[in-house]
Amino acid sequence: MLKNIGKTILRGGALLLSLLILASCSSGKPAEVSSESGISRYTDVPEVTVNDLVYPAVYVRTDIYGEDNTTYPRLVTISTREELEKYTSDSEKIYDFETNAYSVSFYDAVTKYDAAFFENNSLVMALLNEASGSYTHGNRGFSKNDGGYTLNLIRFVPSEATDDMAAWHIIFEVPKTSPVLESEIKLDITEENTAA
Predict the structure, then answer these.
(1) CA 34 to each of CA 31, 81, 97, 116, 172: distance values in angstroms, whole numbers, following the listed order
(2) What is the pLDDT of residues 71-107, one digit of tens each?
(3) What CA–CA distance (Å, rounded) separates 13 from 95?
(4) CB–CB of 59/38 below 8 Å?
(5) What secondary structure does DSSP assign to the chain, as a single string?
(6) pLDDT tens-digit profile of 10-20?
């Protein structure tokens, strides 16, 4: 009988521990993630108004190693698998799409975007070429402006930064029903200083 009571207590303790872990994971505030993960970190939830549209973002470091005549920052909207394949083919001569510099390479990040995905979604990609690999980014979402929408990003700049250049593709999955896709999208990057 003592053996059964011990097993019951052990099972109850394991269940309680599991529930505590799950509760801590859903805090409503994103956990701080290191820049090495490929996902930029937030130290707090960015301010978003009720009218803003926020879509999840994948942050992929794609350093430049080819001849590049691109003006940065830049936005690219992709609506079909064929457009994605053409963009990738045209751009792989410029960007490092293979290296898994942090958590995912560009090739790995876009593999899931098949024809079925593009039936209901498009991609909006923000291309950045930063003065330092120490800069990280945050997403405040798309806000309404006079002529359409503005994608609002945050550039977190540490007090001490490395002296290397870093290019990024920040990929947003936007439903085709979103009003964001109905007009020109502008890009606004707000700079915030952070501790080193």
Answers:
(1) 10, 31, 21, 32, 20
(2) 999 999 999 999 999 999 999 999 999 987 667 899 9
(3) 51
(4) yes
(5) -HHHHHHHHHHHHHHHHHHHHHHHH--SSPPP--GGGSS---SSPPP--TT-B---EEEEE--B-S-----SSEEEEE-SHHHHHHHHHHHTTTB--S--SSS--HHHHHTT--HHHHHHEEEEEEEEEES-TT-EEEEEEEEEETTEEEEEEEEEEESS--S--EEEEEEEEEETT-GGGGS-EEEEEEEEEE--
(6) 454 444 334 33
pTM of the model: 0.74
Cβ(172)–Cβ(56) below 8 Å: yes
Name residue 109's amino acid: A
